[in-house]
Amino acid sequence: MFWTSEGNQKRSRIRDFFNNVLKCGEIPRHVAFIMDGNRRFAKERQQPRAQGHESGFQKLAETLQWCFELGIYEVTVYAFSIENFKRSKEEVDGLMELTKRKVAKLMEEKDKIMEHGVCIRVLGDLTLLPPDTREAVAEVVRFSKNNTKCFLNVCLAYTSRHEIAEAVKLTAEGVELGILEPSDVTETLLDKTLYTNKSPDPDLLIRTSGETRLSDFLLWQTSHTCLIFEKALWPAFSIWDFYHAILCYQWNYTKLKTEKDKTERYKLTKELESLKQSIAHKQIQAQNKETSQVDEHEIEEAIKRKDERQQAFLSFVDERRQQILESRC
Amino acid sequence: MQLFYRFLHFLVTLIFSLLISFRYYFKLTRRKIRGVFYRTSECDIKNGVATLRSLPRHLTFIVMEKDVDLCILARLVVWSITAGISYISIQTSEGDLDKRKTEFYGEVYQIRQEMSTCDYELHFTDKDSAEQNGVNGAAHKSLRKVHVNILSYHEGKEDVTKAAQTFCTKVKNKEAQSKIMNIEHLSNLLEVNKDFPDPELAITFGPVDSICAYPPWQIRLTEFISIPSLQVMDHTLFLQTLQQYNKCEQRLGR
After folding, report:
1. ipTM value of the model?
2. pTM metric for this prediction
3. Alpha carbon A281 to its chain's center
4. Residue B223: its chain A contacts at CB < 8 A?
5. What integer is the mean pLDDT of A61-68?
6. Do the bridges between strand A74-81 and strand A150-158 make them parallel or antiparallel, or are there none, so unpaired?
7. Which chain A residues are Cβ-neighbours of B65 within 8 angstroms?
8. How far apart are CA B103 and CA B101, in angstroms?
């Protein structure tokens, strides 16, 4: 996007031409990448591992440029998993150093970030990061948080199971503090408590290096995502692989959309039903009678109250995330 | 100019679709030809599996096409059992397998009878009926137990939501504290986890490159292998898929 301004991002005419052709079909709003294969790439070339990560980063910059040109305004990348902390200390430290360095470089181009309206978010359990890395990352997030044109989500110290468990923990905390009722905990609320609560679900997920698993990445969010596994290693990921993935997405688009809409409708009816049930249940308990007639007015009231509680809870979640980002240790 | 781009886009999409259908019909013809000359026998599966290094403990089939061919699906289940897999689950996106459960069980029993040896005990883990249908009547202790489960379409996220609600109710009643919640704790609260381990391999059938609402918690390390349709599946392709799974190497973050 903006940090590629070193010369290699001349808008190529050929690319413009292909982009224009592809734009006649559906373009995903949000694409997620699992950037796999940096180390194997380095090994094949007999380079040190760090070199592999470096070329991986360069590829990311290039790919963001491709996405931007094609009109994809939200990208999520899996930069560092909680499991990756198991790697050798040397490599982990190297990766943290790389992150810090790149962030510092990014901050030198503040005006470019603002000009393009890029909002950078970091998803994951930031408390697991070393303090100086967290500090550096927090600075960019704070700086760009009001931008709304394009979004880059970087998953750092992230795994999906951890994210889901954290979300459940937060809702339980909400109950503890009296903000939420247990019956307010619905699938929709959990959706909004995840780290990704500010983004739509990804439409397309691309994993490189031919591995065909999700490796604990966005498990919840990808239920109706088009999953494409490309053979190329990440640093060798070419624009043709990228175009192939986009074509696959276009081919899948209608079918996936129908499925997604169907599930969404089912979810909402189900949630309404369980709300009605819980009202009826309460009435029986309160009045000690068998009949469970619930009138429309009462349901409306209950929905209103529930929405208010959920809203209060979501601002609590936002506040909490803010705190973690700000906390210095 | 715009019209020109549209025309090109149409052309590209057409070629792309043609390639995909060509691949499908090629595989279908190959299966039919093989089917004419060859009848699957139990030995084929057993010999094929003997060369493999590792087998998935839990194999799951995700079927995303309309009008599921129960006969092929049942055959796949029996082959998997013959291969030595003990946990098998099936999810269909249309949800019609839920309604045709009995028909499906019948198919499985019938195909099983065609097999000569039967050294296992079959359990259908059924949510609706608590009883478990052992086939041989009296259970033999020496026999290996095989579990087959049909997942209903929306189960996965509902399960997590339910677990979250249960936990929150406990917290409200002061029976638990929110801070004890972690991955392990949530995992223990989930229904699906009770009888089944996480699937190591998922074979997806159908014209969609997606997993269509498969339970999210379970697929952390699952390998996905996609086959265009149930129709192209025969035992050779089944064995090839298992071989492909064998080549996968999990690094678990390292």
Report:
1. 0.90
2. 0.91
3. 38
4. 212-213
5. 94
6. parallel
7. none
8. 5
